[in-house]
Amino acid sequence: MSSYEQDFYRWTQEQANLLRQGRLSAIDVDHLIEELETLGARERRELTYRLKVLLAHLLKWRYQPKGRSRSWRATIDEQRLSLDDLLDDNPSLRSTLDEQLAKAHRLGRLLAIKETDLDEDIFPGSCPFALADVLAKDRYPGE
């Protein structure tokens, strides 16, 4: 059994040292590829998660105006800032924004339904917001 299965942290340190030493033939290539792909997928999932939370609050903001609060506004602002940071750190994710927006809307819609007393038919099945409006600072639908 390799150190990858026995002690993942130790395996990562070993692989880093092998790379630093230029001992490429000793690298555990298959597991290293797997881990690199996992890291990329994690960033994409983070993008979807942030968009989901943002969209849920934008939906609530638009369709439940009596429930608007500083807390909702702060969550909208926080998610937008976090998305800016994520996209600055991972610019290639920008090319996936339209696809991720559609995925995140489905999840955000479910979250908005869960967090409100509104009938689920109130919330549209497809995203009612343009991507630019979703990401724009100081834009709140219905204001």
Radius of gyration: 20 Å
User: Helical region count?
Assistant: 6
Can you count the beta strands?
Answer: 0
- The first-to-last residue Cα distance is 60 Å
Mean pLDDT metric: 94
Largest sheet: none
Helix % is 55-70%
Uncertain runs are: none
The dominant shape is elongated
What order do the helices and strands follow?
Answer: HHHHHH
Strand percent estimate? under 5%
Structural class: mainly alpha
What does this protein look like?
The chain is built from six helices and no strands. The chain has helices at residues 3-6, 8-21, 29-63, 70-89, 97-115, 131-135. It starts with a helix and ends in an 8-residue tail after the last helix.
Question: Features of this protein?
Answer:
single chain, 143 residues, mainly alpha, 6 helices, elongated, DUF29 domain-containing protein, DUF29
In short:
The protein is mainly alpha-helical and 143 residues long.
List the helices and strands and how they pair.
Layout: H1 3-6, H2 8-21, H3 29-63, H4 70-89, H5 97-115, H6 131-135
Helix pairs in contact: 3-4, 3-5
